[in-house]
Design goal:
The chain is an alpha+beta fold. The chain contains six helices and nine strands, in the order αβαβββαααβββαββ. The chain folds into two domains: 139 residues, Aspartate Aminotransferase, domain 2, CATH 3.40.640; 78 residues, Aspartate Aminotransferase, domain 1 (Alpha-Beta Complex). Strands 5, 6, 7, 8 and 9 form a five-stranded antiparallel beta sheet that branches. A hairpin with a 3-residue loop joins strand 8 and strand 9. Its EC number is 2.6.1.19.
Amino acid sequence: MSTARFILARYTTSATTTRSPALNASLKNDAAPEDIAAIIIEPVQGEGGFYAASPAFMQRLRALCDQHGIMLIADEVQSGAGRTGTLFAMEQMGVAADITTFAKSIAGGFPLAGVTGRADVMDAIAPGGLGGTYAGNPIACAAALAVLDIFEQENLLQKANTLGKTLRDGLMEIAETHREIGDVRGLGAMIAIELFENGDPGKPNAALTADIVARAREKGFNSALLRSLLQHLAHPRSTHY
């Protein structure tokens, strides 16, 4: 039985600025295409900073995978379940993944994760070949079905887009008079802000970021802090405004 390997490509730039030529170079320098079973990517990075891949990049990646017979796996654990304004962020990229993973919001707080994909891929697994000791918890599955019903009943996908635009526009307006806000980014309601000292991208303002998070928490608003430098704003899609 062969040993599986995870390969981290040696990009000359950060993962947030990688271009498709770097991916082609990686297939020459890091691993032969025939040795690669799949490429795993978050269409919107989670812990990487809420950077959204461009549709053009994802389409080139899809073409690259098709050219070499490589599976494309979308990790939508954070970006799925309507967070970006569509049920899955890949819907906005103009291409489909062969396999998609999801979790977190899909069950409204109950522990549930899932995987879906092309019929020929999912059907290739023999009965009993995919599962887990605690898989298929009936309460979590019922919660997920209720979440999907509420998405339709309350039009939560449109609400995610509206809330995201309202938040992004408001933050951009504040940024016009506050140089500390160096970047506002994301997709749909999956928004992050990055703070810098005097607007200098080379000087992240960790102290100010932590202070804002702490003050917001005092007022009942919780936000995630990534590496003490980035503030994630991921409010519930059911938020009323």
